[in-house]
Amino acid sequence: MNKLRWALLGIVGIFSIAGGFMTTVEEAHGWWSAIPGFFALFGFFGCLLIIIFSKFLGRILLYKREDYYDGN
Predict the structure, then answer these.
(1) Cβ distance 17 to 40 under 8 Å?
(2) Residue 58 in contact with residue 64, Cβ under 8 Å?
(3) DSSP-assigned states of every residue in the chain
(4) Domains of the chain: which residue ranges?
(5) In a structure prediction context, what are the per-residue pLDDT tens digits for the chain, which is 72 residues long?
(6) How far apart are CA 8 and CA 3, in angstroms?
(7) Quick one: which of 17, 21, 11, 23 has its CA closest to 41?
(8) Which of 8, 20, 43, 57 could bond 37 through an S-S bridge, CB–CB 3.0 to 4.6 Å?
């Protein structure tokens, strides 16, 4: 991506986080609902965990040595 796209992505991210602080929250059903931006961070770290776990499983289940098909 070029610099303009990164800048636009950063601006959208800043507005998204700022919007979480500007909205009014009715009654919080749990302690997590009272934290601004909690669900965005929860989704980000959940996605990161899924990526790391899938890479780990891929190395265990799919990875083969370089000489695996040599026929020895």
Answers:
(1) yes
(2) no
(3) --HHHHHHHHHHHHHHHHHHHHS-----SSGGGGSTTHHHHHHHHHHHHHHHHHHHHHHHHT---TTTTS--
(4) 34-64
(5) 699 999 999 999 899 888 877 877 677 788 888 787 788 889 999 999 999 999 999 998 888 888 888 876
(6) 9
(7) 17
(8) 20
